[in-house]
C-alpha cells in the first residue's frame, strides 16, 4: 500500500552559499512551515479540528480544508507547493500529485507514480530569465518609444489645438469676408439687374415696333390682294373667296359670317380694313405666298421633336452637364442611379428657336454685368473656403475628441492601418476606425467591426479595443473584433483568430501600452537563490 | 473561418431548410403505408394448410394460402432457447427473392424442440415447454396465439391484418394483440415520451433513418436511427417483439383503453365487468420478409437477456469514454485545441476526450487533416497523450468525389460505391459537395474500410485518436427526405431493403478498424448517429442535432431510456443543445443532467457562441466543475454497470419500472430514471425551478440523498427544494456503490486511486454491491481474464468483500481508503479481518445523519476482507 515519505529534505542555499537543511512536510511552502511541527498535534489551518501529527500526509484526508495532506492527493481541495529551485515556486491542486503527469519542474509532484520526470527548473529558469530579460528590454525600449509617442502626441495635440484656434480666428475673418463680399455682390447685382432690365425692355419695345411695322405691311399687302377689283375697297364678296377665314370651320364661309368679320360694313377701305384685319389675320392665307405664314404658325415636325426633348430635360440638366466635366465620379453615379436614358441631341435645335437674337449689351451694361459676376465669384470662392475650413476644424476636433489614452499615447495610430496576412486572408486594423478581412485570392472585403470602445479590464481599459457592428453573419450576429494590445517595440498585428463564430480576436503590439519598467531591475540574485 | 464555412453551411441549409414536417413523409404520403394501413381488421384471407405441416427437431413449417389470390406463403415457427418464439413468413415461391436482414443476429439462435400436443381440422396446439406455455395455430382464418395456462399472452393476426403484397414491391404487414397490456415501450428513435402513445387518428411511429434538421418533439416522426423492438409491460409480465426488418417501417399502436378516462377505468374495475385492457400493434414494412422474435420474459431482466442473446450486448467501452467529452463544431486549429485543453486545467475541470468535427479534415476529405489548421496532428495528439487525454475525429461515410483523394480512388478502383439504378456510382451532395457512398453492406468493403484506420493508413492518427461516424443514415442533402434514393443498389438489393441497417454497418466497420489497428488488443470507441438493432455491439449513440431549449433537455431522458430498453445503453444527448445558444441556467442544468446520463458530451453548432465550461462566470464554472467531478467520482459505478450491461444486456440507464415492475406508478415516469438499480436521478429540467417532486419507489425501500445522506422512505412523492447547484440523486438503501473521490484531470489519471465505499443500509441493515476493476482499455478482461470482480455484502454488522471470479487475475494498486455506512448505528469497535489477522479501524460517527465513517481501512481493492462492526 502506501508508504510515503512524510518529510522532504530540501537544500536551501542562503546567500553565504552554505547549504542548510530545512525540514518540513512534503508540499508545505516555507511560509507555512511553522504550522507543521512534528512534535505537536496538527490543527487544521481552518481550525476545524486537531489531529495527531502522524496523520499529516498520511494519504487520508482529515481536514475539511485539506491542510493535513499538503503532500498527497487525498484531499479534494488541497494544494501542493513545489519549490522549483532555479525557477518559480508554485502551488498545484493536490489532484495533480502522482497523477503520472509532470507538473512541477523539480519533479516533486510525481514521487510515487512511476512517471519519469526530469528536473527542468534550471532550464525553465534560464528561459524565463531570457524571456523576462527580453521582455524587460522590450518594455524599456517600448516605454522610451512610448515617451516619444506621448511627446509627439502632446506636440501634435498642441499643434492641432493651436491650429484649431488659429483656424477659428481665420474662420471669423473669413465669415466677415464672406459677409462683406455678399454685400459687395448684392451692391453690384442691383445696377446689373437694372441695366439688364433696361436693355431687355428696349429690345422688347424694338421688337414690338418691328412687329407692328410688319403687320402693317402685311395688312397693306392683304388689302391689295383682297381688293380683287382694285377699287380701293374690299367687299364682302371679295373676302368670301378666302374660305380659310370660316369662323365656325364648317367648310363654308357664308355671307353673314363675312359681314360679321367686316363689322357689318358692306365694304371697307384701307383705313377701315384695319379692324377687319384684326379679325382675319390669324387665319388669312396669302394667295401669292401660301407657305409664308407657316413659321408663325405651329412649328412643323422637325422643330417639334427637340421641343419635346427640351421638356424632358429641364434646364438644370445644363448645369449638371457642366459639372459632369469637372467630376467624372459624379457623372457615373448620376447616370447609373437616375438617368438611364441615352444621351440626347440637344443644343443645336435650341438656337433655332430664338430667331431674333437679343442684341448684345451695350458696353456700359456689359461692364456692370462683368463687375457683378466678379463680385459673385469672389463671394462664392470665399464661401467655399469657409466650408473647407469648417470641415478641417470639424475633423481636427473629432480627432481631438477621441480617447487616445491617458497620455494620448495612441494618437499616432489614428488614420493609420496595420495589416496581417494569413494563409487565406489579409486582415486590416485601422485603429479608431475599423477592422476588415479581405480574401487573398479574390472576393470582397468583409467589415469585421467599426470602432466601438476601449474595453480592457477595469484597472486598464486601454489593453483591449472593441470593434463592433461589422457585416452581419448569416444566421448569426454582426461581426465584431476584440483587439488585445501588448507591449512591443513595433506596432504590429501579430495574430488573428475567430474563437467563436464571427467574433474575431486580434493580437496587436504597440509601444503605447508599455509600462514603465520597475525601477529596481529584476534582481538576478533573487532568482539564482531559489 | 468566415466566408468559406458560410458557403458550405448555406449549402446544407438550402437543401434541408424547410424541414419541418413538409420535408418528411407522413403515412398518407407513403404509398405502401397508406395502402396497408387502410386494411381494416376483419376476416383474414389467409388460411393455414394443416396438411402441409412439417415438424422437425428445430422447426415447424406450414403453408398459408391467401384465399383471394391463391398465393402460398411459408410459415416457419421456431422455439428458441430462453423462452422465445420466432415466426417467419415468406412467400413460398417469390417472383423475386425477398431480403432477409443479415449481420444483426449474433448467431443463428439455438432452438429447442417443439412438440405437437394436439391437432385437428381447426388447428394445432404446440407445447412451448416450460410453464405450461402453448402455441396455438388456428387454421381458418390463420392466427397464432401464445398461451400460458388459461391466459393468452400474445396473438398474431388476430385482427386479420396479415398482408403480403406480391405484385408491387414487397410490402408486408402483421398485427399483434397484447391482451392485458396497456404500456408499450421502445421502437426508437423518436423524440417522444417513454411510454408509446396510441397512433389512432395520427401518424404511426415511423422507423426510417433520417437526417432531420431541427427535429420536432413529441411526435412519431422518424429520426436518425431505428430499432424495431417493442416491449410490452404489465404488473405480471414483460414481453418483447423484435421485428427483424431493415426497410422503412411504420408501427401503429391502438388500445381499447386509450379513450377511457381514469374514472371510466375505475368504474370498469369496480363493476368487475370490464373488458380486459388490450394493446394492438401493427407493423408495416416496405419490403423484406416477416421475421419476428417474440420474447416472453416474463421479467424485464429476462427480456433484456433474451434480446441480448439474439443481437448481442452493449460493447464494453473503454473506461475513459465514460468520462466527460468536450466537443464543438469546430475547434478551429491546433492552437485552439491546445488552449481549450489548458482551459480545463486552469479551471481544474476534468475531461477525457476533445473532439474534432468536419472542419478538421482537408476539404472534408475524411482520414486527412487540414494542412493549415492541423499541420501537426501527431504533435497535437502527443500533447493530449502527455495529459493522459484522448481525441475523437469525425469520419463520415460520404466520400468526396475527387480524383486527388486516395480514399475515393481506392473505393472507385475496388468498385465499392453504392450504385444508382442504372448501375453507375451513386452520387449525392453532402458536406464535401458531390460525394459517393461506400457500400458498407459488402463485407469486403467493410474489411477495406477497417484497414484504413491502421496507423500507417490514417496518417497523423495515434492510439489516443478515436472515431465519430456522423451522417450515416445516410444523409444525402439532395436526396429524397435527405437520404439515399430507394432504388440505389447494394449489389442485388435495393437501398429500400437495407436502408435502416446502413448506419450500423458504418459503425461496425469503423469499430473493427480500431480493433485491428491495435492488433486486436484495444477496445474501440466509436460514436454513431444512425443505428439499428445490434448497433449496441459497436459503441455509443447520441440523439443527434437537438437544440438549446428546455424541452430538448427534458426529451433527452425518454430518448435515452427508450434506447436502453432495446439494448443501446451507451446513449447521450448533446449537452447544452446543438443548435442555438443556451441560457446559462439551461447550460448548467444540462451539465447536471448529462453528468448522470451514460454518454456525456457537450457539443455546439458552428454558429453558436463559445461555451466551454469556464465562459459563464466563476459561479457557473464552479457549478459545472462540481457536477463533472461528481461524474468522475462515480466512474467505478458506471464502469461496473457497463460491464454488467455487456455481460447480461441489462440497461445502464433505466426507467423505474424495470426495477419496480409491479409498481404501476412507475410505468409512465420519464422525468427521472435509475442508473443501475442503485442510483435514482431526478434532473431539474424546468427553467427557474425552485423544487422538483421525485417519486421514490419501493414500499420497503429507503433512499439516501447522495449529497446530504438524508434518508427518505420509498413509495412516496418527495418534494425537493432546489437551487441552481442541486441535482437530486438518491442511493437505494441496500446498495453499495464504490466511488473514487479523488477526482483528477482525466479518468486515466485516476487509474490507481483508492476507492471509497458508500454502503447504504436497507431498513433490515443489509446492503450489497459489486466492484469491477480491469485495465480500463484492453480486451484482456475477456481474452486473459485480467480483471477483478468482487461482491461486497453488508450483513449482520459485517462488510465483506468476496471474489466473484476466483480464476481471474488482475493486480491493482488501488485500495480502500474509506467506507461510509449510511443508516448505521454507532459501533463500539471496528475490526478489519484480513489474512487471518484482525486490526482495529478508526471510525467516526455522525449521529445527526447516522453516518459511520471508517477511516483508512487500507486493504487492497482486490483482496478478501471483512470489516466487523461491534
Automatic annotation (TrEMBL), chain A:
Biased composition (Basic and acidic residues): 337-353
Keyword Calcium: yes
Cellular component, GO annotation: glucosidase II complex
One GO biological process term: N-glycan processing
Compositional bias per record (Acidic residues), positions renumbered to this chain: 308-336
InterPro entries in alphabetical order: EF-hand-dom_pair, EF_Hand_1_Ca_BS, EF_hand_dom, Gtb1-like, Man6P_isomerase_rcpt-bd_dom_sf, MRH_dom, PRKCSH, PRKCSH_N
MF terms in GO: calcium ion binding
Pathway(s) where this gene product acts: Glycan metabolism; N-glycan metabolism
Ranges of residues in domain EF-hand: 214-249
Renumbered residue ranges of the record's region Disordered: 284-362
Domain MRH as annotated: residue spans: 415-516
Coiled-coil zones: 150-220
Signal peptide region: 1-17
Assembly behavior: Heterodimer of a catalytic alpha subunit (GANAB) and a beta subunit (PRKCSH). Binds glycosylated PTPRC.
Protein name: Glucosidase 2 subunit beta
TrEMBL record, chain B:
CDD domains, per database record: GH31_GANC_GANAB_alpha, GH31_N
Pfam family, one: Gal_mutarotas_2
Domain (Glycoside hydrolase family 31 N-terminal) ranges: 76-252
Coiled coil stretches, renumbered: none
Residue intervals of the Glycoside hydrolase family 31 TIM barrel domain: 315-641
UniProt key word Signal: yes
Keywords: Glycosidase, Hydrolase, Signal
InterPro entries per the UniProt record, alphabetical: Gal_mutarotase_sf_dom, GH, Glyco_hydro_31_C, Glyco_hydro_31_N_dom, Glyco_hydro_31_TIM, Glyco_hydro_b
GO terms classed as biological process: carbohydrate metabolic process; N-glycan processing
Protein name: Integrator complex subunit 5
Gene source species: Cyprinus carpio
Higher taxonomy: Eukaryota, Metazoa, Chordata, Craniata, Vertebrata
Amino acid at each position: 500500500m502506501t508508504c510515503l515519505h512524510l518529510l522532504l529534505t530540501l537544500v536551501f542555499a542562503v546567500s553565504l552559499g552554505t547549504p542548510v537543511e530545512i525540514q518540513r512536510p512534503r508540499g508545505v511552502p516555507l511560509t507555512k512551515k511553522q504550522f507543521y511541527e512534528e512534535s505537536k498535534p496538527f490543527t487544521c489551518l481552518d481550525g476545524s479540528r486537531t489531529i495527531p501529527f502522524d496523520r499529516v500526509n498520511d494519504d487520508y484526508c482529515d481536514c475539511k480544508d485539506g491542510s493535513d495532506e499538503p503532500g498527497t492527493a487525498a484531499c479534494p481541495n488541497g494544494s501542493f507547493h513545489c519549490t522549483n529551485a532555479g525557477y518559480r515556486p508554485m502551488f498545484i491542486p493536490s489532484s495533480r500529485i502522482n497523477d503520472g503527469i509532470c507538473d512541477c519542474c523539480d519533479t516533486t509532484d510525481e514521487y510515487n507514480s512511476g512517471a519519469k520526470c526530469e528536473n527542468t527548473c534550471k532550464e525553465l529558469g534560464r528561459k524565463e530569465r531570457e524571456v523576462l530579460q527580453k521582455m524587460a528590454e522590450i518594455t524599456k525600449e517600448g516605454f522610451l518609444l512610448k515617451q516619444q509617442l506621448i511627446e509627439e502626441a502632446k506636440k501634435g495635440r498642441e499643434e492641432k489645438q493651436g491650429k484649431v484656434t488659429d483656424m477659428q480666428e481665420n474662420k471669423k475673418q473669413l465669415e466677415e469676408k464672406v459677409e462683406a463680399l455678399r454685400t459687395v455682390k448684392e451692391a453690384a447685382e442691383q445696377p446689373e439687374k437694372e441695366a439688364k432690365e433696361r436693355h431687355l425692355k428696349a429690345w422688347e419695345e424694338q421688337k414690338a415696333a418691328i412687329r407692328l411695322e410688319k403687320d402693317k405691311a402685311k395688312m397693306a399687302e392683304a388689302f391689295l390682294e383682297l381688293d380683287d377689283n382694285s377699287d380701293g375697297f374690299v367687299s364682302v364678296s371679295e373676302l368670301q373667296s378666302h374660305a380659310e377665314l370660316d369662323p365656325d370651320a364648317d367648310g363654308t364661309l357664308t355671307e353673314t359670317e363675312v359681314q360679321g368679320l367686316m363689322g357689318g360694313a358692306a365694304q371697307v377701305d384701307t383705313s377701315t380694313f384695319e379692324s377687319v384685319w384684326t379679325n382675319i389675320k390669324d387665319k388669312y392665307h396669302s394667295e401669292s405666298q401660301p407657305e409664308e405664314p407657316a413659321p408663325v404658325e405651329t412649328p412643323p415636325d422637325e422643330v417639334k421633336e427637340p421641343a419635346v426633348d427640351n421638356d424632358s430635360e429641364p434646364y438644370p440638366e445644363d448645369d449638371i452637364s457642366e459639372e459632369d466635366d469637372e467630376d467624372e465620379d459624379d457623372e457615373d453615379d448620376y447616370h447609373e442611379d437616375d438617368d438611364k436614358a441615352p444621351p440626347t441631341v440637344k443644343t443645336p435645335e435650341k438656337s433655332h428657336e430664338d430667331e431674333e437674337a437679343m442684341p448684345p449689351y451695350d458696353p456700359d451694361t456689359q461692364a456692370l454685368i462683368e463687375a457683378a459676376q466678379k463680385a459673385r465669384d469672389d463671394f462664392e470662392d470665399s464661401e467655399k473656403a469657409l466650408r473647407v475650413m469648417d470641415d478641417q476644424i470639424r475633423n481636427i476636433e473629432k480627432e481631438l475628441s477621441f480617447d487616445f489614452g491617458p497620455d494620448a499615447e495612441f494618437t499616432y495610430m489614428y488614420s493609420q492601418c496595420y495589416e496581417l496576412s494569413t494563409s487565406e486572408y489579409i486582415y486590416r486594423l485601422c485603429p479608431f476606425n475599423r477592422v476588415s478581412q479581405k480574401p487573398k485570392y479574390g472576393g470582397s472585403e468583409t467589415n469585421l467591426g467599426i470602432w466601438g470602445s476601449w474595453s480592457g479590464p477595469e484597472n486598464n481599459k486601454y489593453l483591449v479595443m472593441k470593434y463592433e457592428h461589422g457585416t452581419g453573419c448569416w444566421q448569426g450576429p454582426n461581426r465584431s473584433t476584440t483587439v488585445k494590445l501588448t507591449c512591443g517595440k513595433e506596432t504590429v498585428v501579430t495574430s488573428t483568430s475567430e474563437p467563436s463564430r464571427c467574433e474575431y480576436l486580434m493580437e496587436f503590439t504597440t509601444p503605447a501600452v508599455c509600462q514603465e519598467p520597475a525601477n529596481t531591475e529584476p534582481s538576478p540574485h533573487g532568482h539564482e537563490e531559489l | 473561418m468566415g466566408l468559406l464555412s458560410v458557403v458550405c453551411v448555406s449549402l446544407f441549409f438550402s437543401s434541408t431548410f424547410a424541414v419541418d414536417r413538409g420535408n418528411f413523409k407522413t403515412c398518407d404520403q407513403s404509398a405502401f403505408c397508406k395502402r396497408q394501413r387502410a386494411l381494416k381488421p376483419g376476416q383474414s384471407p389467409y388460411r393455414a394448410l394443416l396438411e402441409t405441416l412439417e415438424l422437425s427437431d428445430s422447426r415447424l413449417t406450414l403453408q398459408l394460402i391467401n384465399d383471394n389470390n391463391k398465393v402460398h406463403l411459408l410459415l416457419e415457427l421456431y422455439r428458441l432457447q430462453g423462452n422465445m418464439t420466432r415466426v417467419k413468413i415468406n412467400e413460398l415461391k417469390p417472383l423475386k427473392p425477398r431480403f432477409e436482414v443479415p449481420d444483426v443476429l449474433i448467431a443463428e439462435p439455438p432452438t429447442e424442440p417443439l412438440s405437437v400436443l394436439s391437432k385437428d381440422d381447426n388447428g394445432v396446439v404446440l407445447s412451448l415447454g416450460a410453464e405450461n406455455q402453448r402455441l396455438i395455430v388456428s387454421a381458418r382464418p390463420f392466427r397464432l396465439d401464445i398461451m400460458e395456462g388459461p391466459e393468452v399472452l400474445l396473438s398474431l393476426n388476430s385482427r386479420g391484418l396479415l398482408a403480403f403484397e406480391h405484385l408491387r414491391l414487397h410490402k408486408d404487414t402483421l398485427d399483434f394483440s397484447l391482451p392485458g397490456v396497456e404500456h408499450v415501450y421502445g421502437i426508437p428513435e423518436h423524440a417522444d415520451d417513454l411510454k408509446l402513445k396510441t397512433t389512432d387518428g395520427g401518424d404511426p411511429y415511423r422507423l426510417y433513418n433520417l437526417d432531420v434538421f431541427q427535429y420536432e418533439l413529441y411526435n412519431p416522426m422518424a429520426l436518425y436511427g431505428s430499432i424495431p423492438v417493442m416491449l410490452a409491460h404489465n404488473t405480471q409480465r414483460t414481453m418483447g417483439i423484435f421485428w427483424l426488418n431493415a426497410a422503412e417501417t411504420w408501427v401503429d399502436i391502438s388500445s381499447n383503453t386509450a379513450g377511457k378516462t381514469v374514472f371510466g377505468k375505475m368504474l370498469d374495475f369496480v363493476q368487475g365487468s370490464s373488458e380486459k385492457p388490450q394493446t394492438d400493434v401493427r407493423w408495416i414494412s416496405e419490403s423484406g420478409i416477416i421475421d419476428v422474435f417474440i420474447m416472453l420474459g416474463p421479467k424485464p431482466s429476462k427480456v433484456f437477456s433474451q434480446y441480448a442473446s439474439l443481437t448481442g450486448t452493449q460493447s464494453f467501452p473503454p473506461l475513459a469514454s465514460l468520462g466527460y467529452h468536450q466537443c464543438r463544431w469546430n475547434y478551429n486549429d491546433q492552437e485552439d485545441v491546445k488552449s481549450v485543453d489548458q482551459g480545463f486545467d486552469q479551471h481544474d475541470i476534468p475531461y477525457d476526450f476533445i473532439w474534432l468535427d468536419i472542419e478538421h479534415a482537408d476539404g472534408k476529405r475524411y482520414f486527412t487533416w487540414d494542412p493549415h489548421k492541423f499541420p501537426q496532428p501527431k504533435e497535437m495528439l502527443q500533447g493530449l497523450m502527455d495529459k493522459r487525454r484522448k481525441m475523437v475525429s469525425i469520419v463520415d461515410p460520404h466520400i468526396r468525389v475527387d480524383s486527388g483523394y486516395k480514399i475515393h480512388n481506392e473505393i472507385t478502383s475496388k468498385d465499392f460505391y453504392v450504385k444508382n439504378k442504372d448501375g453507375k456510382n451513386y452520387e449525392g451532395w453532402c458536406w464535401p459537395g458531390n460525394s459517393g457512398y461506400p457500400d458498407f453492406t459488402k463485407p469486403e468493403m467493410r474489411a477495406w474500410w477497417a484497414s484504413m484506420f491502421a496507423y500507417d493508413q490514417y496518417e497523423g492518427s495515434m492510439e489516443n485518436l478515436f472515431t465519430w461516424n456522423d451522417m450515416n443514415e445516410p444523409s444525402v442533402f439532395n436526396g429524397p427526405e435527405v437520404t439515399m434514393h430507394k432504388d440505389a443498389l447494394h449489389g442485388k438489393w435495393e437501398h429500400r431493403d437495407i436502408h435502416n441497417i446502413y448506419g450500423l454497418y458504418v459503425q461496425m466497420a469503423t469499430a473493427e478498424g480500431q480493433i485491428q489497428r491495435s492488433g486486436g488488443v484495444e477496445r474501440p470507441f466509436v460514436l454513431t448517429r444512425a443505428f439499428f438493432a445490434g448497433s449496441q455491439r459497436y459503441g455509443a449513440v447520441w440523439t443527434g442535432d437537438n437544440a438549446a431549449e428546455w424541452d430538448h433537455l427534458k426529451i433527452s431522458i425518454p430518448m435515452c431510456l427508450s434506447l436502453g430498453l432495446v439494448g443501446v445503453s451507451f446513449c447521450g444527448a448533446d449537452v447544452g443543445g446543438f443548435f442555438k445558444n443556451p441560457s446559462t441556467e439551461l447550460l448548467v442544468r444540462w451539465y447536471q443532467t448529462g453528468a448522470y446520463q451514460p454518454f456525456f458530451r457537450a457539443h455546439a453548432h458552428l454558429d453558436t457562441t463559445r461555451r466551454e465550461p469556464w465562459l459563464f462566470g466563476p459561479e457557473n464554472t464552479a457549478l459545472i466543475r462540481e457536477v463533472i467531478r461528481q461524474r468522475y467520482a462515480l466512474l467505478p459505478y458506471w464502469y461496473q454497470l457497463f460491464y454488467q450491461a455487456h455481460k447480461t444486456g441489462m440497461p445502464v440507464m433505466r426507467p423505474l419500472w424495470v426495477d419496480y415492475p409491479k409498481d404501476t406508478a412507475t410505468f409512465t415516469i420519464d422525468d427521472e430514471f435509475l442508473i443501475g438499480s442503485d442510483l435514482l436521478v431526478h434532473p431539474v429540467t424546468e427553467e427557474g425551478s425552485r423544487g422538483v417532486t421525485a417519486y421514490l419507489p419501493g414500499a420497503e425501500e429507503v433512499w439516501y440523498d447522495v449529497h446530504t445522506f438524508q434518508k427518505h422512505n420509498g413509495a412516496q412523492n418527495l418534494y425537493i427544494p432546489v437551487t441552481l447547484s442541486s441535482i437530486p440523486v438518491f442511493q437505494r438503501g441496500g446498495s453499495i456503490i464504490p466511488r473514487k473521490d479523488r477526482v483528477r484531470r482525466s479518468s486515466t489519471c485516476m487509474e490507481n486511486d483508492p476507492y471509497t465505499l458508500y454502503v447504504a443500509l436497507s431498513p433490515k441493515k443489509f446492503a450489497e454491491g459489486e466492484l469491477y476493476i480491469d485495465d480500463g482499455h484492453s480486451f484482456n478482461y475477456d481474452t486473459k481474464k485480467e480483471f477483478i470482480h468482487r461482491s461486497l455484502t453488508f450483513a449482520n454488522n459485517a462488510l465483506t468483500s468476496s471474489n466473484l471470479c476466483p480464476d481471474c487475475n488482475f493486480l491493482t494498486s488501488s485500495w480502500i481508503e474509506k467506507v461510509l455506512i449510511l443508516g448505521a448505528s454507532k459501533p463500539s469497535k471496528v475490526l478489519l479481518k484480513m489474512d487471518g489477522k484482525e486490526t482495529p479501524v478508526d471510525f467516526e460517527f455522525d449521529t445527526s445523519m447516522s453516518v459511520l465513517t471508517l477511516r483508512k481501512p487500507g486493504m487492497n481493492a482486490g483482496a478478501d476482507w471483512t470489516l466487523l462492526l461491534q
